[in-house]
Task: structure prediction
Amino acid sequence: MHGLAVDPADGELYAGTHHGVVRVAEDGRLTRIADRVQDFMGFTVVGPEHYLASGHPGEGQSGPANLGLIESTDGGATWETMSLAGAADFHALDAAQGVIYGYSGGRLLVSDDKTDWTDRGTMNIADLAVDPSRPQRLVVTTEDGPALSEDGGRSVAPIPQAPLLQLIAWSPDASAVVGVAPDGAVHASTDGGRTWQEKGRVDGAPEALGVNGDDVYVAVGGAVVASADGGTTFRDLYRGD
Result:
């Protein structure tokens, strides 16, 4: 899995995977949306039934190897190419108030219209998250720890005394930003990523992270685990064979 997010239209959890977008039900059942089996890499929910993604065509599908930015406004049933087809493969993708940030080929790209992109330069990051209330505030995860930008990625500064994080996600209500370390430790910040508190732990290296208020979802080791207390305790939501 490469992305986890709750759709406000139905309150369900959705995941971008190597085999399409899937709905992860509360009882752990997985349902692929529209039987579309293409490889979704970057994946984010930006509104009710409104998704942005990137990745690669599935088996038997035509088109360039890199999908660029694609958009669905019907809950993943259909997708439209918006820009950068053949040129970008966003492995990290997030948006707030119409400002989109994507990480492809070692470069941070920014767009406010889904079509034209500004190149913010070379970066070595694993993930990124945008403050829903302040789209110019961006947190990225690096091999030296998380870094913060207050100017839309033009400048990025390491966060002093922050824990090493691999994945990061902001709650849609902007109440907290949550990060997961390579060893599975979960941390949260309520001041825009400046200070962090260790919460709980998941068992293994994280693969995807989603946050919705106090609900935290982590894909790890073929499973999706869920927390209802901000990442302090977790239960299995889905566990594959």
Q: What stands out?
A: DSSP finds no helices and 24 strands in the chain.
